[in-house]
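Students often ask why inverse folding is considered easier than folding. One informal answer: many sequences map to the same fold, so there is more than one right answer. In these notes we will look at a single instance of the problem. The structure comes first.
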């Protein structure tokens, strides 16, 4: 689905089913240097499970046009503008990594617009290694290789996958390479600059789910646990042995956890 948001043509994956606006939708927010493809194993699962699903590409990512956004508050504003364009009053917001920071900011700023919140492999702060930021600017293929390498657990490096024929690292590299070259740098800097996580978490009252990866090298699990503790009404699911790219690496675990949360 294509939608004009702030003069940009935004691509939104709907899981292969038409968006109906008949019920509270699930909005999936991708992480740094990612796109709607990060959610391909969630969007179809939930769309064919009876939910309205929206997985937008942020500007400059995937199939969306426009300049990449440069701050987490700007990204939250973008999601609100998208909801307004589609006349969505409230939604379940699901965010992975950087998308989790956006979800926190959005839920704190506009509590009436967020019915439930699911945060996957994220934290109150996401500081980024200086070498990675520099590589994203000057040697982007190397930065992408680092992120796909660090971002996946040991099993993923050996192509042990619940989805036959699917290479985690190859898919990750292809996904990130398809973005505007400016997108990764903008995303990493936005994460480095954002310090609003603790204040945002303290304001959020809606039911929340925090899904954490036991072998996450990019956001250590203790940081995810601190996020869960900062939320007023949260439950936590930890997936042992999994790496940072949880939605692609452990889709069945993630989908089961999200389904149980939505049904609770």
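Output (designed amino acids):
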């Amino acid at each position: 689905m294509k939608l004009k948001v702030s003069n940009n043509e935004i691509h939104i994956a709907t899981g292969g089913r038409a968006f109906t606006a008949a019920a509270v939708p699930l909005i999936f927010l991708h992480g740094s240097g990612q796109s709607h493809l990060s959610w391909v194993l969630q969007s179809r699962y939930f769309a064919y499970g009876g939910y309205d699903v929206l997985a937008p590409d942020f500007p400059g990512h995937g199939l969306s046009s426009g300049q990449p956004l440069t701050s987490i508050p700007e990204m939250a504003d973008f999601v609100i503008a998208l909801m307004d364009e589609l006349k969505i009053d409230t939604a379940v917001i699901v965010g992975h990594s950087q998308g989790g920071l956006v979800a926190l900011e959005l839920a704190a700023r506009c509590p009436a617009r967020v019915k439930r919140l699911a945060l996957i492999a994220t934290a109150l702060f996401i500081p980024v290694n200086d070498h990675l930021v520099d590589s994203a600017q000057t040697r982007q293929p190397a930065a992408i290789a680092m992120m796909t390498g660090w971002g996946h657990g040991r099993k993923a490096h050996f192509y042990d996958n619940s989805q036959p024929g699917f290479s985690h690292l190859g898919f990750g590299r292809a996904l990130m390479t398809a973005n505007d070259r400016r997108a990764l740098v903008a995303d990493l800097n936005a994460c480095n600059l954002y310090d609003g996580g603790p204040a945002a978490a303290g304001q959020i009252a809606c039911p929340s789910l925090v899904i954490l990866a036991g072998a996450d090298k990019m956001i250590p699990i203790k940081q995810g646990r601190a996020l869960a503790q900062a939320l007023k009404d949260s439950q936590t699911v930890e997936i042992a042995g999994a790496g940072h790219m949880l939605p692609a690496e452990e889709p069945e675990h993630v989908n089961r956890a999200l389904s149980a949360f939505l049904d609770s």
